[in-house]
Automatic annotation (TrEMBL):
Listed transmembrane segments: 16-37
Alphabetic keyword roster: Cell projection, Cilium, Flagellum, Membrane, Transmembrane, Transmembrane helix
InterPro entries: Bact_OuterMem_StrucFunc (IPR050330), OmpA-like (IPR006665), OmpA-like_sf (IPR036737)
Originating species: Zhongshania antarctica
Record Pfam families: OmpA
Ranges of compositional bias, category Basic and acidic residues: 190-200
Statement: the UniProt record of this protein carries the keyword Transcription: no
Protein name: Flagellar motor protein MotB
Disordered: annotated segments: 187-218
Record keyword Chaperone present: no
Cellular component, GO annotation: membrane
OmpA-like domain span: 79-207
């Protein structure tokens, strides 16, 4: 092989700087892709964070509105707040062994209905209205209720219907009865029993079917 043929063979190989340039171009491309992905991820994260902050602000506004509505009855002892459950003294709502709503109780429900409805709508929850009694049995000869289960059920229904009459959508509220079960304090005397005679209102989660029906409603 002559020297000229050897030189021609060497000239056919790509120069090292060209290979290095291609490598650098590829690396720059990968870097650009990573940079675009990082910027997109940061933008999405920022938007998600902003949405979460807005949700928390709205939730805080709902909580403040509900607290404002509860401030006076809480201060006067007509209402209690335990673990998110609003308890209303039975003496405020009803007279002894009665399920007929008193004027004071109706006025209180009128005050609470609007902020409760806003809270339930925004949080996609239902309102469970629960009736409770003390441990004393219904007096014999009572023509209206055979036992504490029936009394607590009727009182819960009365409050539920009153809320609906005040404007609460029927699909948002339901009644439950617990009788003498689940007292807040031991039934030791007349004072403790008066605490156990109560109606509680507590937000509870909707099931998926309820959410679908709510979103497809008129």
């Amino acid at each position: 092989m002559s020297i000229s043929e050897l030189d021609d063979g060497l000239d056919q190989e790509p120069p090292i700087w060209a290979i290095f340039g291609d490598l650098m171009t590829g690396l720059v491309g990968v870097f650009v892709l990573l940079l675009v992905w990082t910027l997109g991820f940061q933008l999405e994260l920022s938007q998600t964070l902003e949405q979460e902050i807005q949700k928390r602000e709205v939730a805080e506004q709902r909580r403040q509105a509900l607290e404002a509505a509860l401030a006076d009855p809480l201060a006067t002892g007509r209402v209690t707040l335990r673990d998110g459950r609003i308890g209303i003294s039975g003496s405020v709502l009803f007279s002894l062994n009665s399920a007929e709503l008193q004027e004071e109780g109706r006025a209180l429900l009128h005050t609470l209905r609007a902020p409760l409805q806003v809270y339930l709508t925004d949080s996609e929850q239902l309102l469970m209205v629960s009736g409770f009694t003390d441990d004393l049995p219904i007096q014999q000869g009572n023509l209206h209720f055979s036992d504490n289960w029936e009394l607590s059920a009727q009182r819960a229904l009365t409050v539920t219907r009153a809320l609906i009459e005040e404007g609460m959508p029927p699909s948002m509220v339901f009644a439950a009865a617990f009788g003498a079960q689940q007292p807040v304090v031991a039934n030791a005397d007349s004072e403790s029993r008066s605490q156990n005679r109560r109606v509680e209102m507590a937000p509870v989660p909707r099931v998926s079917g309820d959410k679908a029906a709510l979103s497809s409603g008129p």
